[in-house]
Amino acid sequence: MSAEFRRVFSAIALLIIINLLSTCASECILSLNKDFNSIGPVFIRNGQFLETNSKKGDITFNRSDTVLISCPKRKIVLANQTSSYETLEAHCIINNTFRVDRQILSFKDIRCNSHPWFTTQEKRETCYNGRTQMYQVGYQVRSKFYPIYEACFDKNLVRTHFVQHRITPNSVFRQNGLKRPQFTEGTLFGKIRMNEVYKMNSQIQALDSILGPKMGDHYLSKIQFLSRGHLAANADYATSALIRATFHYVNTAPQWMRGNAGDWAALEEALRRRVHELGTPVIVYTGNHGMMTLPDKGGRMRDIFLHADLNNNFNVPVPMYFYKLVYDPSQKRASVFLTINSSFYNDSMTNSLVFCDNICDKDDYYNNFKWLRWRSNDGTFSFCCDYDQFVREVDYLPKLDVRGRFY
């Protein structure tokens, strides 16, 4: 064997060894709270929104795996240089390093020049027993629309009856430290300015017009007011672009603040933990039902709204109930969790509003619902229903094949 042959052979062997070592160690691992920019793009992987895929809440890629990055209606910024592209493909190199548009850079150096633009899209499907329309909220990436959640929205009453979305076992992980965005109206609310509707002065005027002079001041305060109650929770989503898309008014209903920050928040948090423990994705229908009432100056119970049109027709109703119907399609199990949207009712009235056997109470709670703890100091009352009893009262949701309870 000549010296030249040995030299070439050794060089080839070395290249093979280096390549093998590189292949073994070239997995990319991304941390939601270290490797994602706060003005993050939309990430599409294998035709779906990017999700965490490890027990620690990280996102892993094999070498040369790709993810589509997109800034709808915006431009991608690579290492502080604004590109001319709205959508590009990123290729895993190693650790948190990716190749994008011939550049090698840290994943956190990939962002948008402004927050990506989410939109609503009307579906052909009707809802609420055919009386109104379904809409999708999501992002347009190239020629495809990617929905994040769907909403059954009544334009005339200005009411979202329910929102449908998905919670996965990894929904407990999310990108933290993000600035809370403003809610947006999009194109669904016509001339109604929802930002104005929710202002304290507007709420006082609305209650005064329904209940009588000074009645708004009687019910409203700095700690008890009608908040923009999220239906699909923003914390159910992992990355900044998806989180921002929950801040659409179609994903809200007027909810008294004490309940929003009390039982409702407890339910959202507990449900994410429970789905994580069970390890199975669920479909959640989050909605509101009925009309919340308050006594006027004469003691007569009146339906509460937050707005009236030019013809003095009331809209933006304040609901009596908020609910989450949780459905595990793999096990065909469902349960419904409800909160009464008022802290102004006595025990007698609250009890009269419970329209099912409360399966979270007593023995059922101690045996099966220990994962859910209501916040008893928020002044509201919450309860749980079997699916069959719930749909006798709320008959407008899609029919589900349910054969047992979701615990």
UniProtKB/TrEMBL annotation:
Active site (record annotation): H230
GO annotation, cellular component aspect: mitochondrial inner membrane; nucleus
Keyword tRNA processing (UniProt): no
Boundaries of every DNA/RNA non-specific endonuclease/pyrophosphatase/phosphodiesterase domain copy: 145-390
Gene Ontology molecular function, alphabetical: metal ion binding; nucleic acid binding; RNA endonuclease activity; single-stranded DNA endodeoxyribonuclease activity
Binding annotation for Mg(2+): N260
SMART domains in the record: Endonuclease_NS, NUC
Annotated signal peptide: 1-26
GO biological process, one term: apoptotic DNA fragmentation
Membrane-spanning segments: none
Sequence ranges assigned to domain ENPP1-3/EXOG-like endonuclease/phosphodiesterase in this UniProt record: 146-372
Keyword Nuclease: yes
Keywords: Endonuclease, Hydrolase, Metal-binding, Nuclease, Signal
Record PANTHER family: ENDONUCLEASE RELATED, ENDONUCLEASE-RELATED
Family: Belongs to the DNA/RNA non-specific endonuclease family.
Protein name per the record: DNA/RNA non-specific endonuclease domain-containing protein
Organism: Spodoptera littoralis (Egyptian cotton leafworm)
Lineage: Eukaryota, Metazoa, Ecdysozoa, Arthropoda, Hexapoda
